[in-house]
Write a structure and sequence with these properties.
Layout lengths: L10 H23 L13 H21 L13 H7 L3 H12 L7 H8 L3 H7 L7 H4 L21 E2 L5 H4 L7 H14 L16 H10 E2 L9 E2 L5 H4 L7 H14 L16 H10 E2 L2
Parallel strand pairs: 1-2, 3-4
Length: about 290
């Protein structure tokens, strides 16, 4: 039995094949020769389109600016490494600032900041508006008169006699103003002159630190003469006549002496309540234990 050839077609089949081939050729020709790209009917160069684009760009720029971290005024002396990075400083510039501050030195102006860190003029122009220094730097109080101030102790020979010092000379000591200088002079006049430096502690309003500053520069060189009372025979009323000693304290001293019948050394009085070391030194100007 003979098999039918696969390449033998009927007239109807040949017509179908020819039609299919024609269609394939037609589609391929259309793909290669016909321009199927879309033609844009929007004119992007028109004035209206350009205006809309500019508005969009402006809104985009505003939004980007809004999202940026807000910059607040700051003291450049306290910049951290992270802050320096955010500000745009290089590690080397920050290291210069850090080394300067570790030496306990301070930046007090934009010029100081650039001198120390060596930042560029352009970066300084950006940062300078945000620099904030303390009021005593930006608005220093005017100095109307330059006066001499006492800082360190001097020798006895160089010191001024406290009994002849003027109020103006006393005001040269830090902590002594017009009121206190006049009060010292007034108290000295009331006593008839200081008998010793310790009497300065009896001036009202003078604290111990200020008194030490005064005595670094002044001392009693011409003490007023005193007729000392015998502690072992003086009454409480006699002891109360000592300037700076209240009657209550004088009574406690007298009672202590009576209890022991005899005081041979002032150090024995250290146990009396309310008798400070300064008061003890003070009464030794006026009393004796002979």
């Amino acid at each position: 039995m003979k098999l039918r050839s696969h390449f033998t077609f009927s007239k109807q089949e040949r017509s179908g094949i020819l039609l299919l081939v024609s269609l394939i050729v037609g589609v391929m020709a259309a793909y290669y020769f016909i321009d199927t790209s879309e033609t844009s009917h929007l004119d992007v160069s028109s004035a209206k389109i350009i205006q809309l684009q500019e508005e969009l760009d402006s809104l985009r720029a505003v939004e980007l600016e809004r999202r940026k971290p807000k910059q607040y005024p700051f003291n450049p002396n306290f910049i951290t490494d992270h802050k320096a990075y955010v500000l745009g400083m290089t590690p080397t510039e920050f290291d210069r600032l850090k080394l300067f501050r570790e030496q306990d030195q301070w930046i007090n102006s934009a010029a100081d900041f650039q001198r120390v860190t060596k930042v560029s003029d352009s970066l300084l122009a950006v940062l300078q508006p945000y620099f904030k220094f303390p009021d005593w730097v930006t608005n220093p109080k005017p100095s109307y008169a330059k006066k001499k101030t006492y800082n360190t102790p001097i020798s006895y020979a160089e010191k001024i006699d406290l009994n002849v010092a003027t109020a103006a000379e006393l005001r040269e000591v830090h902590g002594i103003g017009e009121a206190l200088s006049k009060r010292i002079v007034s108290y000295r006049e009331k006593l008839g002159g200081f008998a010793g430096d310790i009497e300065l502690y009896s001036v009202y309003g003078l604290d111990n630190m200020v008194i030490r500053r005064v005595l670094d520069q002044f001392t009693v060189k011409t003490p007023r003469s005193l007729a000392k009372m015998n502690l072992n025979t003086a009454s409480a009323s006699d002891i109360a006549t000592i300037p700076g000693i209240s009657f209550e304290l004088a009574k406690r001293i007298w009672e202590y002496r009576e209890l022991r019948e005899q005081i041979s050394d002032f150090s024995e009085l250290e146990k009396i309540e309310g008798l400070s070391n300064q008061k003890l030194q003070l009464i030794q100007l006026y009393l004796s234990v002979d």
